[in-house]
Recover the amino acids of this structure.
């Protein structure tokens, strides 16, 4: 089955540690996205990538970093510079960057203790 | 820049009753509109989308939405809800053409009461 996988489902980290969230897709989509979801705030765009080896900052990129070395993978690193990292993180992909229908992974819930 | 307003944060409704979840957007250009559903601790699943053409859009699970350009609205409706429809629903908008950021509303939690 084609789809998007995110791992792990739940992640706990101590304050001050960097953590990397995995996102893999086998849909052969060019574009990939990372969103942060907080209660009552909807989804906010962290980073997006339109093509391999290229990515752009979204609305709330501070304290996060990404890479896009392979078409199917778009990992997100939450660094110690992110002031409030506890949230639900969603990865998405679309056929291309101008094809606006996005397909979402199941999410990773990050809790920083 | 576009924006999306979901007027109701929570909507309780009895099983088998009809429901309407409201969505208004603002944009100065042509838009694409989407409704997504999210079950607890899961990702978002597309219910339906409006790109062009007929203003009445039918989606999965018996949902439909109507694009009203003059009122800048895209309300989601279902004539008879089931317990399984209990979830959070997100409206989203993007400007049409080329790469355009998708802006999501803050969500409406639909609670179906048995």
């Amino acid at each position: 089955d084609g789809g998007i996988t995110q791992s792990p489902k739940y992640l706990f980290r101590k304050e001050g540690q960097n953590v990397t969230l995995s996102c893999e897709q086998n849909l052969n989509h060019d574009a990939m996205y990372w969103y942060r979801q907080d209660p009552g705030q909807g989804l906010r765009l962290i980073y997006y990538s339109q093509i391999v080896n290229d990515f752009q900052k979204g609305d709330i990129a501070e304290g996060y970093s990404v890479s896009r070395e392979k078409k199917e993978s778009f990992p997100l690193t939450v660094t110690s510079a992110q002031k409030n990292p506890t949230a639900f993180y969603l990865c998405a992909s679309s056929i291309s960057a101008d094809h606006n229908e996005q397909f979402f992974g199941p999410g990773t819930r990050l809790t920083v203790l | 820049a576009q924006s999306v307003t979901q007027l109701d944060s929570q909507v309780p409704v009895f099983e088998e009753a009809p429901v309407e979840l409201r969505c208004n957007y603002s944009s100065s250009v042509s838009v694409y509109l989407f409704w997504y559903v999210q079950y607890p601790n899961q990702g978002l699943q597309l219910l339906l989308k409006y790109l062009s053409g007929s203003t009445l859009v039918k989606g999965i699970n018996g949902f439909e939405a109507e694009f009203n350009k003059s009122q800048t609205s895209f309300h989601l409706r279902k004539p008879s809800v089931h317990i399984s429809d209990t979830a959070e629903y997100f409206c989203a908008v993007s400007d049409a053409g080329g790469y355009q950021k998708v802006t999501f509303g803050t969500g409406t939690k639909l609670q179906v009461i048995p």
Q: What stands out?
A: The longest strand of chain B covers residues 87-95. The two ends of chain B are 41 Å apart (CA to CA). Chain B has no helices and twelve strands. Chain B touches chain A through 23 residues (CB under 8 Å).
